[in-house]
Design a protein that fits this description.
Elements lengths: L7 E2 L5 H9 L9 E5 L1 H9 L4 E7 L5 H10 L3 E4 L1 H7 L8 E6 L16 E5 L4 H13 L4 E5 L9 H6 L9 E3 L2 H8 L4 E5 L5 E2 H4 L6 E6 L7 H6 L2 E4 L11 H12 L4
Parallel strand pairs: 1-4, 3-4, 6-7, 6-11, 7-8, 9-11, 9-12, 10-12
Antiparallel strand pairs: 2-5, 3-5
Length: 264
């Protein structure tokens, strides 16, 4: 579809505009439908098979790659006149690409295939930007899934997490679970390796283990919770120069995942 063939919405009376205004509110929680923003998360959702009702872009910026992707997947696409887009997002962040999608069903622990890679377990990690970065690294480095314990998120389809992960929450099982549920699930399936400053081994040595692992990361402030810390089978550390106190949890996860990947 050529840019000059794309329909542009110019009237606020168009039902799509009211729907976008309603579901883009910060208080809105995904039910049967959800709001997506930015080109990369929208594109990843399409490639992952999420059913998109329609995709919209600010008429001042026509994302040609996304237009072609929508056409190839049969996803409706329209432009929104810039003044109208500005009136919808008059306060806060103004995205150039938005979409309305059917909310995917939540992933479960049973959806994680440990035959395809390790699982990342985040125990008390609550900064959404860090969680999103870890999901991106997990997908890029071949992990089988990510489990969130005590994240304080109500849903993996949280608008902030979708954006922070660049949409990879649609392409990788990301599961909300209680810690004791995860420990029961892991038993007999994989060894749990907790990353800690005083770990008994190093991530380099962990990288050489020929078995599925659960890589456990606690919060930067508190580390692993007592119950999870007591249950891990092994602790590992990332060697650092003297005087360095710690690494950001998303950086630590990326290092550990790369050590475990077969890409290096």
């Amino acid at each position: 579809m050529a840019p000059d063939e794309i329909v542009t919405i110019t009237q606020r009376s168009d039902p799509a505009i009211q729907r976008i205004a309603d579901i883009s509110k910060p208080r809105f929680k995904p039910g049967s439908v959800m709001f997506l923003e930015d080109e990369l998360p929208v594109a990843e959702a399409i490639r992952a098979g999420v059913r998109l009702v329609e995709v919209y872009a600010d008429a001042s910026h026509v994302p040609e790659d996304l237009v072609r992707l929508c056409a190839s997947y049969g996803v409706p696409f329209r432009l929104i006149a810039s003044p109208l887009m500005a009136s919808v997002f008059k306060s806060g962040r103004r995205p150039e690409v938005v979409a309305v999608a059917s909310t995917p069903p939540p992933a479960h622990l049973e959806d994680i295939d440990l035959g395809s890679g390790d699982v990342v377990v985040l125990d008390g990690v609550r900064i959404v930007g860090n969680i999103g970065a870890i999901v991106r690294s997990a997908f890029a480095l071949g992990a089988a899934g990510v489990v969130l314990c005590d994240s304080q998120l109500d849903t993996v389809m949280d608008r902030r997490l979708v954006r922070a992960s660049r949409g990879y929450v649609f392409s990788l099982p990301v599961v909300l679970a209680e810690a004791d549920e995860v420990l029961r699930w892991a038993r007999g399936r994989c060894r749990l390796v907790g990353l800690a400053a005083d770990g008994r081994t190093t991530v380099g040595q962990v990288g050489r283990l020929d078995e599925p692992l659960g890589l456990v990361f606690g919060s930067e402030l508190r580390g692993m919770s007592p119950g999870v810390g007591a249950a891990v089978d092994l602790t590992a550390t990332i060697p650092m120069v003297e005087g360095a106190e710690s690494l950001n949890v998303s950086v630590a996860a990326g290092i550990a995942l790369f050590a475990r990947s077969r890409l290096g």
